[in-house]
Amino acid sequence: MGFLFELIGQGFLSIFSQPSILLVSVIAVIIGIIVGALPGLTATMGVALLLPMTFGMEPAAALLLLSGVYFGGIYGGSITAILLRTPGTPAAAATAIDGYALTQKGMGGKALTIATLSSYTGGTISILILMFLAPILATFALKFSAPETFALAVFGISIIASISGVSLVKGLIAGTVGLLIATVGLDPIQGFPRFTGGITDIMSGIPFIPVMIGLFAASEAFKSLEEMNVKGKVKTKIQKFGVSRADIKKIIPTILRSTGLGTFIGIIPGAGADIAAFVTYNEAKRFSKHKEEFGEGSIEGVAACESGANACTGGALVPLLTLGIPGDSVTAVMLGALMVQGLQPGPLLFKDNEALVYTLFSGMLVCYIIMLIIGLFAARYFARVVDIPKAILTPVILMLCVVGSYAINNNLFDVIIMLIAGIIGYYMQKFDFPASPIVLAIILGPMAESNFRRALALSNGTYEIFYTRPITLVLLLLSIITLFTPIIKKLWKTRKEINNASLR
Amino acid sequence: MAKRVDISIAGALILLAGIMIYTSKSFPNAQGTDVGASFFPMVLSSLLIFLSLILVFTAIRKGEPNSDKSEKTEWKKAILAMVCTFFYFLVLNYIGYLIATPLFLGGMMWLYQYQKKIHIIFWSLLITGIMYLCFVKLLKVPLPVGIFFQ
């Protein structure tokens, strides 16, 4: 343990000895809060848009920039949710319920302060949990060889069923298409070029960073043009930011409970901040002594969803950093950023780049402190970002998509991929096909295939290797459960509906 | 509308999967313990066909939901943006970032009816400049200079 504290201490030292990293963190958190506060712009989009800017940076600065945007983005959604009832992010929709009710009662300032304090506490504790849990998990995962890694990738892929949104079959189709896209390029064992059509640019596979920029940023920009003239400005003077000691006492149990729950939800791949916010909100209501306040402006409600949503951030980084499995779309983009820096997330990251990992952890804590300071003193000003006309914002986003995907390799081919992904992503949204399964599948597909084939080489071609090794077996069973639970639930529901219909 | 779209998408996916299965037949065979380059594409394409068939069946059974007709003009706005972005990408290669970007930004702001002309010019130049400084000067990430100016 003492060893761990030394590493963390060194991490802080390297952060504070480099003012440029501190500056980057401040800028990142501000950008994140703006992106989060803007309705239609999510943390995922912010991270995807800024990813190309990190190429020329040092790994620590690059990753902290994206982490800052991620944290700020999750928090920023609450500002517009509380003051204007337009949640900037899906996660803040739960905050809007009680947050806006408080604003209507003239307590918007107090709601903002509570949201800031809760976000900070939730986020910070989750990062601390990440710091202590990740090395343990990484040491354990170091023992993994090809069959375990294959099983892990399959587990990651099986999450697709739970993030598929409106239609389960459409989510699964998106995932399968993603896996097929992942087979493009040289095959991992024989080196045979598959489905390349002679195009050398895709010999090593379809580049997935432009795909992510297209799916998560460009398609959202296209979509946002449809809702050009939606405006709901409520200009009330916000004051009374003070929070009494009694308030703090009231929300501390809620914050701690929601933080634990949020971190746990974050660790589960497939569940992100939005789910965490709603789950913690419901739990807070269940535990509360003042249930009647919920929906009418409960500070406990605001505290619960904000601490839960931000606690997700540290949790979601656990499987990403230790196992290389992104659990949601933001961490998928973060994975791209790590790879661009030449870092392969997974257990080896903790062995080979220990100093960097702890610098990163310390930096994340610093990011949350920056967020706390900005939030306490300037949160209300960020609500003004909704006044930025879409006619200016959207062209800028599209320009960043084009320029960013060009900058990855100084290659216009990547821009074509981004544009195609953006257009396809736009139509996918139109027809209820979710985008994140594609990205998850593109990332995990090659991992699954190469390790499957390597495992067979290890076992001399028998499939026994997949059910005789305990970790592999457990992971594969878990994948089956993860994949089929939503399917069975869905079938059960339709059967019930049919029965009900025939009864009538 | 939604029903027909679902069925056409499923049809297109089945066709795609068919082509992929056909193409993967020419991949090298399994050697020794390895399942070969064609194994994964084959399995996944078959899975895609299976899922697409389910989509067709659910679409047929589901019946017609109410579709929004007012959306049509809104679609055009998004398509216009796609066309603009594509042209921006095309000219970027020739005239470079510094000329293409203000044209693209200004053009799009104008197309999407941002009222104040002076603001359009001001914002498109300012944003182009800031981004140029960020990428090229600060982060040392090169941007297209344009073939004409090389």
Structure, described:
The complex is a heterodimer of chains A (504) and B (150). Chain A is mainly α and 504 residues long. Chain A has helices at 2-16, 19-37, 43-50, 59-84, 93-104, 108-141, 146-158, 168-182, 208-224, 245-267, 273-287, 299-323, 329-340, 347-352, 354-382, 390-409, 412-430, 436-458, 465-468, 470-503, and strands spanning 185-186, 193-194. Chain A has a two-stranded antiparallel sheet. The model of chain A has no long low-confidence stretch (mean pLDDT 86). With 150 residues, chain B is mainly alpha-helical. Chain B has two domains: 1-64; 68-150, no CATH class. Chain B has helices spanning 2-24, 39-62, 71-95, 97-111, 117-138. In chain B, α1 (2-24) packs antiparallel against α2, α3 runs antiparallel to α4 and α4 packs antiparallel against α5 (117-138). Chains A and B meet through α8, α9, α16, α17 and α18 of A and α1, α2, α3, α4 and α5 of B.
In short:
The complex is a heterodimer of chains A (504) and B (150). Chain A is an all-alpha fold.
Summary tags:
heterodimer, A: 504 residues, mainly alpha, two-stranded antiparallel sheet, 20 helices, 73% helix, 1% strand, B: 150 residues, 2 domains, 5 helices
Largest interface: A-B, 61 and 63 residues
The major β-sheet of chain A equals: 2 strands, antiparallel
Number of helices of chain A: 20
- The tally of beta strands of chain A, per DSSP, is 2
The computed structural class of chain A is: mainly alpha
Basic shape of chain B: flat
Q: How many structural units, i.e. domains of chain B?
A: 2
What topology emerges from the helices and strands here?
The complex is a heterodimer of chains A (504) and B (150).
Chain A (H helix, E strand, L loop, with lengths): L1 H15 L2 H19 L5 H8 L8 H26 L8 H12 L3 H34 L4 H13 L9 H15 L2 E2 L6 E2 L13 H17 L20 H23 L5 H15 L11 H25 L5 H12 L6 H6 L1 H29 L7 H20 L2 H19 L5 H23 L6 H4 L1 H34 L1
Antiparallel strand pairs in A: 1-2
Helix pairs in contact in A: 1-15, 2-3, 2-4, 2-15, 3-4, 3-9, 3-13, 4-5, 4-6, 4-12, 4-13, 4-15, 5-6, 5-12, 6-10, 6-12, 6-15, 7-18, 7-20, 8-18, 9-16, 9-17, 9-18, 10-11, 10-12, 11-12, 12-13, 16-17
Chain B lengths: L1 H23 L14 H24 L8 H25 L1 H15 L5 H22 L12
Helix pairs in contact in B: 1-2, 3-4, 4-5
